[in-house]
Amino acid sequence: MNVNKRTLGIAIVAGLASGISTAAMARDTIQIAGSSTVLPFASIVAEEFGASFPQFDTPVVGSGGSGGGLRQFCQGVGENTIDIANSSRAIRSAEIENCNANGVEEILEVMFGYDGIVFASRIDRESFELTPSHVFAAAAAELNIDGETVENPYTRWSEIDDSLPDQEIVLVIPASNHGTREVFEEKVLHLGCDAYDMEGEACDALRGDGRIIEIAGDYTETLARLDAQEDAVGVFGLSFYDQNRDRLQVATVDGVTPSLETIGSGEYPVSRPLFFYVKGEHLDQIPGLAEYTEFFLDEMTSGFGSPLEDAGLIPMDDGERDEALEAFQARTVATGE
Amino acid sequence: MNTITQASRGERLAIIERSLASRHRQEKRFRRLGLAAVVTGMVLVLILFASILMRGLPAFWQATFYLDIHFDSDIVNVSERPIQQEGESNADFRERDFTWQSEVGRVNWQQLIDNALAEALGEEIEPQQTRDLRALVTSAERRTLRDRFIEDQSLLGETHTIKLLASANVDVWIKGNINRDLPDSQQQLSAQTREWADHLYEEGVITNAFSTALFLNTDSRSSLASAGLAGAFMGSLFMMLIVMLLSIPIGVASAIYLEEFAPKNRLTDLIEININNLAAVPSIVFGLLGAAIFIGYLRLPLSAPLVGGLVLTLMTLPTIIIATRAALRSIPNSIRQAALGMGASKVQTVFHHVLPLALPGILTGSILGVAQALGETAPLLLIGMNAFVSNIPATPFDQASALPVQIYLWQGNELRNFFEARTSAAIIVLLALMLSLNALAIWLRKKLETRW
Question: pTM score, two decimals?
Answer without folding.
Answer: 0.85
